[in-house]
Amino acid sequence: MISENSKIVFEGVSKFYGEILGVNRVSFSLEPGITALVGPNGSGKTTLMNLMTGLIQPTHGTVMVRGLSPSQPDEFFKQVGYCTQFDSFPRGIKGYDFVYWPLRLGGFPHAQAAELAREALARVGMQEAANRRAAGYSKGMRQRVRLAQAIAHHPSVLILDEPMNGLDPMARAEMLALFRALADEGLHLVISSHILEDVDRISDRVVLMSSGFIVAEGQIQSVRNEVRDQPMQILVRCSNAKRLAAEAFSLDHVVEAAIQSDGGGVLVRTTNADEFFLLLNRVVVAGLVQIEAVAPADEDVNSIYQYLIGSDGNLA
Amino acid sequence: MNVREVPAGLVARTREQPWRAWRSQVGVLIQRELRRGLFTKRRLWIYLLAFVPTLMTFIHKVGPFRDPINAEALHSDTEVLAGIVQLYYVKLGLFFACMGIFSWLFRGEMVERTLHYAFLSPVRREVLVIGKFLAGSITAIILFEAALLGCFYFVYSRLGSLGSAYVFHGPGLRQMGAYVLVIALGTLGYGAVFLGLSLVFKNPIVPGALFFGWEAVTPILPRTLQLLSITFYLKQLYPVKVFPPGILSLFTVEPEPLSWFTTIVGLLCFTAAVLVFSCYRIRKLEITYTTE
């Protein structure tokens, strides 16, 4: 049982900018691990993250991160790091100073702040450019130095708003590996990204947002199971695809059974996956087909996103 | 020490000794703000505001058109120095320098979209206000006190032994002390007002201009209204009176003077009250750069 003091808890949180809705009646409780915030432009992802860190305050409701309120920044930001989407730096600052000064403000003595700053910069691959001015960095470097600042004090919660923006594929892969490593070290990561494949690869759970509301939340598999009006897609690689397709069609809940072009598998769309798996057991036991692999074909963030929010969501 | 264990230790230390932590944070803030605020090209206009009178007194000392050195010149130069402090520094130079420095402390970072970095640091926002205010005050005080001391030196060193006698065996040093105090208190008072205005208004120029107008007209207003002006309090500390010229003196109301103690405590209390208000405002401030 995970205590409330290790979770990120939103209780009835709403945020209005005058008459414009930011987020509305948001309630959730995020456990440690990697949580992906997914939604189209203007869906409220950044608003949610800014509420989480106190950059804006809720019109209604309460926000607690590991039992701490953002209204107590001296305690709160020793535990929390936030890499925002704002791509701006204090005038004339160098990468090293950008990471070093917040550590000094946080109470670290000079030597330790310097050590932590160098460690964080090395972790994001920026040690070589640390003594150059941030204004001369490429977009990817700016992104990485902001990430270094967010992780330098070893927070237990890391909030990242579009952290893969501006990174080339190699750097993206490195970042994803870093996020996974941080999560494995016990960090609580909340990531928003419009690159759904990346999010899908590393996240333990998703929060899907649209127009300021949370559309779905939970582990990817359980969210997918809740989307009952969209048949699940299951790919079965087997020895006798025609026979399996025929057997599948005998079930009412199977709406499609398409044999793959190489004849070595069937893509089944069904509204009752559990019943289909029982059928699969029966045909295997009866020796009608030999199974090579069974895999859900649409149990990913992209599919869930499209089912719930629509393909014209204009992710960004 | 294992760096991974540090945050927990820091949290414990902060809880046990918040004052110590706040003092250290204020120190770091001052250090950082001075580094990026005091010695930059962007502050050039403030240097000019501060040092133009110093330059003029220097030219007066070394220039080709030198006045005779006698008791009349001593009297006249003392009045010129009083005019520089009372009419130029207090009413113009220090006023606009404080407007530039203190309005920019938070509003400037909003405009440059970097204030969120301060808000995401493990520092109470009230500590940010105090740290930045002190950094701004130190900047203005260093510049204007240095400029004032320069003026003082050039004015009296020009007069040779007469000037030296006036400074060291006459009222000179006491007058200099009074002017140093006027500049320091003026900085705190104006600074607090401009910091407060910048946390209320998105564009503090307009309220700043109204404040300038108010400070300019209060000498001709009744005493009760004069009490709401910073220059009124500073005037109580002037060691040499400079009266407005000609017809303006007819409209000037000279109220009962206040004691030095009342003046100093009053201005410090006013500064503290505005800072408390600024702390309240900063707690409510949100990062919404798109509306800036």
Q: Portion of residues in helices of chain A?
A: 25-40%
**Could you name the ranges of chain A where pLDDT drops below 50 across 5 or more consecutive residues?**
311-316
Gyration radius of chain A, rounded: 23 Å
Distance between the termini of chain B: 44 Å
N-to-C CA distance of chain A:
36 Å
Task: Please give the domain count of chain A.
Answer: 2
Largest two-chain interface: A-B, 41 and 39 residues
**Count of β-strands of chain A:** 13
The helical percent of chain B reads: over 70%
Strand content of chain B: under 5%
Biggest beta sheet summary of chain B: none
The total of helices of chain B stands at 13
Shape of chain A: elongated
What general form of chain B does the structure show? Answer: globular
Describe this structure in words.
The complex is a heterodimer of chains A (316) and B (292). With 316 residues, chain A is of the alpha/beta class. In chain A, 36% of the residues lie in helices and 27% in strands. Chain A has helices spanning 45-52, 73-79, 95-105, 110-123, 139-151, 169-184, 196-202, 220-226, 241-249, 273-285, 301-309; strands at 8-17, 20-30, 34-38, 60-65, 80-83, 157-161, 188-192, 205-210, 213-219, 232-238, 254-259, 265-270, 291-296. In chain A, the strands form three sheets. Chain A has a six-stranded mixed β-sheet with strand order 5-6-7-3-8-9, sandwiched between helices. The two termini of chain A are 36 Å apart. Residues 311-316 of chain A have low confidence and may be disordered. The N and C termini of chain B lie far apart (44 Å). Chain B is built from 13 helices and no strands. In chain B, helix 3 packs parallel to helix 6 (125-157) and helix 4 (71-111) runs parallel beside helix 8. Helix content of chain B is 75%, strand content 0%. Chain B has one domain (3-291). Residues 1-5 of chain B have low confidence and may be disordered.
